[in-house]
Amino acid sequence: MSSSSSSFASSPIQSNMALFHPFFSHSTSLHLHQTPKQSQPLKLLLSLSSPTHLRPFIPSRKISLSSIKCGAVADTKPPPLPLDGDQAPAAEEDHKVMVGPTSEAERRGERVVADYDWTEEWYPLYLTQDIPDDAPLGLTVFDRQLVLYRDGNGELQCYQDRCPHRLAKLSEGQLIDGRLECLYHGWQFEGQGKCVKIPQLPADAKIPKSACVKTYEVKDSQGVVWVWMSHKTPPNPAKIPWFENFARPGFQDTSTTHELPYDHSILLENLMDPAHVPISHDRTDWSAKREDAQPLFFEVTERTDRGFAGWWGKTTDPSGKSFLRLEAPCSLQNNREIVDDKTGEKHYFSGLFLCRPTGQGKSMLIVRFGGTKRSPIAKLFPKWYFHQNAGKVFEQDMGFLSSQNEILMKEKVPTKELYLNLKSSDTWVAEYRKWMDKVGHGMPYHFGHSTISLPKEPAVVEHAPAGLVAGVSASLPAKGGIGSMHAPNLANRYFRHVVHCKICRDVVKAFQAWQRALTAVAVAFAALAILVSGRQWKAILLVSAAISSAGVYACSYAVALNTTNFIRTHRRL
Asked: Where in the cell is it found (predicted)?
């Protein structure tokens, strides 16, 4: 495919908006190197499939489905094909388009089980840039509640989110001289969870040694804070994911955080599903169009105990394929390497999704899109504009995914009993659920392709999420500080994203301040226009009042963009 530097420059919008829909970025004027031999970065990307490159792998073991006894894990066999009359040809036709068994073990009815423990993994907690310096941050991994904060030395500390005194949430507390104080009775903690102050303790008494909090190891890597969840196994730094493209010179990314009201497995399914983009996100940006919905091709190049990887793309444009990788516990990346044929310059683009389970029916996602080349037009837009657009994307899918979550919990059967996975659209979804079959026994709960393990503990519903009270007493906490204008609901964009994003919090506060100031100015100009007698001055003051009123509207609109949910208006061709 031929290309030119001018054509490359003419499509910067499409290249940049691939940040929010990397699955369907346009590349008609670009040449994609398809073989690892031709492209060293792609060779490196494929080399990530090597177990020794990332971390040591524990070999899987094959066991018969009939011999599995794993507590709450349930296994079901696929229903037999109908063989009577005209149904047999129809069943054969179905199997031509449906995803079927992908391994000999699956064809023989065997299940491959990997040695897996969900606690012996690093989970993405937060973007480093968004961690507040003046307040603690309440977070969860599955059902474990954590509190993260910066101490007086700027070091990150992570504890179990409960005071050993009477179990109050430490994330509702505050920071005093670099120490984390529980706001219930004023106990203070520092360093490795040691209690250093109890106001009610007699002056001649020592603080009990048992007055300490459980700690968790955290590491800052490539702009993300990761937490190791195991207290039995020492932290393994080699397991912290490393994303090659994000370390390249000149690489720039747009990163956002979103809290979402559905299970992390459903979220990952959605993120690895390119087929839904042109339909669900039609015209959300400049790249998604429902007319582009079409069959896709998928090529799985590796399956391991820690995930899978492979190529995918449009059947109408095989040269424009992308490389997708799922890596345990819940990291997903979609990469492309593009070369300008005229200049020979290579450009690298990545869509990175770092998912964290936050409880039953809840998840948090760190989204990072970027590349070594950015559109000049995109530079004209502020970062908050792309943040609100990302929020719109998640809101467009929210109704589908929340209902999907409810049905899975209600039906209590594996996904193969419910899904109709097409080879031309749902290959990654089937691969993911089959990988869950291998490792789900080592998770608190899971929904696999052939197995399920239901939650053993009831879901926790927080009527007063950590930080809402602290938001009033602490100084500008990460959870907000704007007041009570927005309800604490994960269906609300403000609490899904803005409270977790320093950029958007500051933008909302700034626009609100300008709105109040311009309102006062508009009122003042209008009042003066009434009082003055000169027609020229009256006209000038009225025009000034009108301009100020327009500024009030613009500020109000900007606040609404950042805090108001997208409402779908159906578009018919």
From this structure: Plastid, Chloroplast
